[in-house]
Amino acid sequence: MRHPSPGADPMPAQQDRYGASSPASAPAWWASAWRASPTPRCCRPSSAPHWFDPSKAVYLGAANLAGYLAGALGSRAAAARLSTAVTLRAMMALATAAFFACAYPVSFSWFFAWRFLSGLAGGALMVLAAPAVLARVPSSRRGLAGGVIFMGVGAGIALSGTLVPLWLQKGLSEAWLGLGMLSLLLTALAWKGWPRTAPKLPAPASGHRPVASTGTLRALYAEYALNAAGWVPHMIFLVDFVARGQGQGLEAGARYWVLFGIGATAGPVLAGLLADRVGFGWALRLAFVLEIFAVAIPALDLGPAWLMASSIVVGAFVTGTVPLVLGRVHELLAQHPAQQGPAWRTATAAFALSQAMAAYGLSFVFTQSGGNYERLFLIGTAAMALALAIDLAAAAARGSRLAAHAPASPRPETTAAGAAVNRVPCRSRRVRS
């Protein structure tokens, strides 16, 4: 397999992270997702001639990441002060303004500030949007509802492989303006779709209730972070792998990226339907198993059919895993709804940080290895396998804790008539491991 020159494009600019919205405001979600959808190595406007050289593009990526983390960590405080609906509308408007501002690279400082604000909007939308809607959805339908919410990310990925290259043919400024107009239109359509009031949290029921331990949640955070790292080879290097690594050219690489986007569009809904049937824990486990094999396929050189399948499956879980993790957080903290928001915020921050570190780390590995693509996909496979191992270990530990705290079966008692009667205490429903 051919490798590109080691000196070619050594450090890609870090990409925007996922924004979020709600079923009621699906257009805004799709606008945020379009802004946040990852862009393959071969299609990076930020490092194009006459804009910014690669070294400065790295700093712009860091600014976007810093903004995303700031938005994820500070969004709850902003919502508490302004209300969730007002904060979400402000973040949609900010993301739209960032599109238009980026069409005019006045200076590096100008672009740096707007990339930071773009990340800020994405992080806040990711943390606030989906929980605001899912709180109003019956638990039996949250898998499907979460899938519909996160389907917008897949739509953004699919469209980024079609419309954005067409806009780029007219120029970089025109591409940014096109994104801004689309975002403005979708944001306007979704402006009144947000819930105006926060849902009332149910009072904790009396009696024995299993509480999700800190260890279980930490394991989930680690799994989500490892997933984010495991996706990076496909999200950033897939098009480059096909175009240069296999010598098929950029057009062939773009076709695989469109397949990736098609999978990302359907993945959240299919994952949500599965979760509604088997529970979020088991659905997440199955996702890990499929991802292990799908991420490894490019390193095995099994041919075009397998590579197409890999693109679709990984694309499906890049977006499909997000509602599964969100649903798992709600599942583990079902009796503690006040803890769900902070837990999801922590998971989102872990996701963003891990994906950024993996993007830069794998770019370094790629350069130092002389352009070895197979090594990147094997590292991604190892990350997915480690996520599955952590999940299985956490599930086993949780099962042991629940068994240890379960009340013992009562001994039969004899009534006055001499009949044996078992007094079985009423047990609350336990969360599926």
Short description:
Helices cover 70% and strands 1% of the residues. The chain has 433 residues and is mainly α. The protein has one domain (23-195, 212-402): Growth Hormone, Chain: A, CATH 1.20.1250.
Low-pLDDT residue spans? 1-36, 45-49, 200-211, 424-430
* Helical amount: over 70%
The strand order across the widest sheet is 1-2
Shape: globular
Broad CATH class: Mainly Alpha
Following the backbone from N to C, one meets helices and strands in this order, namely HHHHHHHHHHHHHEE
User: Class by helix and strand content?
Assistant: mainly alpha
Number of helices: 13
* CATH-scheme architecture: Up-down Bundle
Indicate the proportion of strand residues: under 5%
